[in-house]
Amino acid sequence: MATEVFESGPVDAPVHPGEILGEELEARGLSPRELALQMGRPARAIVEIVRCRRAISPTTALDLERVLGVPARLWMNLQAFYSLDMARLRRENTA
């Protein structure tokens, strides 16, 4: 069995999933408040995600999938990569 080694390169600028969500909402002509209403969530929670101040939880990812049709796994992968990149940057800045 072949084993591949992946080296992590430098992190340029991590992209918060809220940035992607904001672009998706803009393309659909929806505001964060309208999305929150469709999701049955507090508007503040969605606004904070779009402003990159809050993470996307698994529950939120499922709600986004239901309302927008974008797979929950995509939202969770975006969040995981962002969180990992931010942790790597913090570690590099303290080393």
What's the structural blueprint in terms of helices and strands?
Blueprint: H1 17-28, H2 32-39, H3 43-50, H4 58-68, H5 72-94
Helix pairs in contact: 2-3, 4-5
Brief summary of the model shown:
The chain has a single domain, classed as lambda repressor-like DNA-binding domains (434 Repressor (Amino-terminal Domain), Orthogonal Bundle), CATH 1.10.260.
Protein architecture, described:
This protein has a single domain (17-94), classed as Orthogonal Bundle (434 Repressor (Amino-terminal Domain)). The model has no long low-confidence stretch (mean pLDDT 92). The chain is mainly α and 95 residues long. The protein has helices at residues 17-28, 32-39, 43-50, 58-68, 72-94. The radius of gyration is 16 Å and the shape is elongated. Helix 4 (58-68) packs across helix 5 (72-94). 65% of the residues lie in helices and 0% in strands. It contains five helices and no strands. The longest helix is centred in the C-terminal third of the chain and has 23 residues, at 72-94. The relative contact order is 0.16.
Descriptive keywords:
434 Repressor (Amino-terminal Domain), mainly alpha, 95 residues, 5 helices, 65% helix
The SSE string, one letter per element, is HHHHH
Distance between the termini: 36 Å
Runs in which pLDDT lies below 50 for 5 or more consecutive residues are none
Helix share, percent: 55-70%
**Main sheet characteristics:** none
The total count of strands amounts to: 0
Total separate domains? 1
How many helical stretches?
A: 5
State the shape.
elongated
**Quaternary state, please?**
single chain
Q: Architecture in CATH?
A: Orthogonal Bundle
Output mean pLDDT: 92
The CATH superfamily name is: lambda repressor-like DNA-binding domains
Gyration radius from CA atoms, angstroms: 16 Å
Classified by CATH, the class is Mainly Alpha
Binned strand content:
under 5%
Structural class: mainly alpha
Per the CATH scheme, the topology name is 434 Repressor (Amino-terminal Domain)
